[in-house]
Design brief:
By secondary structure, this protein is α/β, with parallel strands linked by helices. It has one domain: TIM Barrel, CATH 3.20.20. The protein starts with a strand and ends with a helix. The protein has an eight-stranded parallel sheet with strand order 8-7-4-3-2-1-10-9. It is globular and about 55 Å long. α2 runs parallel beside α3 and α8 packs across α9. α3 links the parallel β3 and β4. The chain contains nine helices and ten strands.
């Protein structure tokens, strides 16, 4: 089982370049960053995590700028979004950004995608919240067309263009893997329709029966659809070696450890602790 980190990289926390260098040196497989272009001051949409929205949500760096700096100082570390709010992007521009990053990093990009929860944020981008899941699918499909076709076209309800040229193409044939985030009842429909992997929120305890059952269901549905086994990346993992072993046993392929938005003095020791836990779990 691979292990990586995910963080809200901000203007006051450890820089993405330093975080990436340390993570690669310690043996981490990947580094993911979050995305919010802004947080509306109205705060009408409730945060799923509780009453008070943490400070880092309104201080996040642009994910692709952050990941480009991380790629520039590493050689093997995979770089990803956890998650990119694709419905809030122009898909032609986003396809160019992702392809450029994948090209420059030598094919190390993992594109985690999600529909988002902040309705006011979506509205500020001109996105009707009721259309966000349909837009997410069409934006991913449109980007795949751009990544894989020399003269790309796409026709959908929300996205439509004919015969465009766009280079560079991603380093990886077909483009970066698309990891669909979410844990709702329809998430597997989305994964099977246009995703290459699933990213659920993990539990911090040893009781992993629910997520284990869902992973089994996903793989059964994938087989029935003629798909190969679908990789699972868990967002949020324990540092308990026994729990990490259980993640691996139920079919988790990658665990992402959520880091605080803090300085290097706080984050580096935590990275060392996480790496040691994985070494212990590996035996």
């Amino acid at each position: 089982m691979d292990y990586g980190v995910v963080s809200f990289v901000t203007d006051y926390s450890i820089s993405p370049a330093e975080l990436a260098r340390v993570a690669e040196d310690l043996g981490f497989e990947s580094m993911f960053v979050t995305e919010h272009t802004h947080i509306p001051a109205s705060r009408e949409s409730p945060w799923p995590g509780g009453a008070e929205l943490p400070r880092e949500y309104s201080h996040t760096l642009d994910p692709f700028v952050a990941l480009a700096t991380a790629a520039a100082v590493t050689t093997t570390l995979r770089i990803g979004t956890g998650v990119c709010l694709v419905a809030q992007h122009d898909p032609i521009v986003l396809a160019k950004q992702v392809a450029s990053l994948d090209h420059l990093s030598g094919g190390r990009v993992l594109l985690g995608v999600g529909a988002g929860w902040n309705r006011e944020e979506m509205l500020n981008h001109g996105v009707d919240p009721s259309t966000r899941f349909g837009r997410m699918r069409e934006h991913v499909e449109a980007m795949r067309a751009i990544w894989t076709q020399d003269e790309a076209s796409y026709a959908g309800r929300h996205v439509s263009f004919e015969r465009i040229w766009s280079w560079p193409k991603p380093a990886r044939p077909g483009g970066p893997p698309v990891l669909v985030g979410g844990s709702g009842p329809k998430v597997f429909d989305r994964v099977l329709a246009y995703g290459d992997g699933w990213t659920p929120i993990g539990r911090q305890t040893g009781d992993l029966s629910e997520i284990g059952d869902r992973i089994a269901e996903l793989q059964e549905r994938a087989a029935a659809a003629g798909r190969d086994r679908i990789p699972v990346t868990v967002y949020g993992g324990s540092t308990n070696p026994d729990t990490l072993g259980r993640f691996s046993a139920i079919g988790v392929d990658r665990v992402l450890h959520l880091l605080p938005s803090a300085g290097a003095d706080d984050v580096v020791p935590l990275l060392q602790q996480i790496a040691a836990a994985h070494d212990a779990a590996a035996g």
